[in-house]
Amino acid sequence: GLWFEGEDEEGNLKFVTVPDRGPNGAPTDVDDDGENERPFALPDYQARIVRFTLDENSRDIEITEQILLTREDGTTP
To answer: Positions of the region Disordered (predicted)?
Structure first.
C-alpha cells in the first residue's frame, strides 16, 4: 500500500510504502525434486518500509528512509 503523510517544510508530498519483492516467476521445478515451486525474481530481497517525497513541480522522487524489517532474533522474514 501507499500512505500519504502530508507535506514537508518545502511543500513536497511525503509518502510511506511497503514494497513487495515483485512478481513471482512461472512455476517450475527449481530444485529437481519433482515439484513445481514459484521462484522469486529477487530471492535476497529484504522486506522494508520506505519513506519518500515527491516534488510535484519537478516530479522528482527522493527516498528519504528505508527501514529493513527483521525478526527479534535478527533474521529476515
So the answer is: 14-39
Residue 68: enclosing H or E segment and its boundaries? strand 61-68
Amino acid identity of 44?
D
What is the per-residue pLDDT across 5-35, written as a single tens digit (0 to 9) for each?
999 999 999 999 998 876 667 888 889 999 9
Question: At which residue does the C-alpha cell 522522487 appear?
Answer: 61
Residue with cell string 525474481: 41
pTM of the model: 0.72
pLDDT value at position 23?
66
| Burial (0-12, 13-18, 19+ Cβ within 10 Å), 40 | middle
What is the radius of gyration, based on Cα positions, of the chain? 18
Grid coordinates 518500509 are at which residue? 49
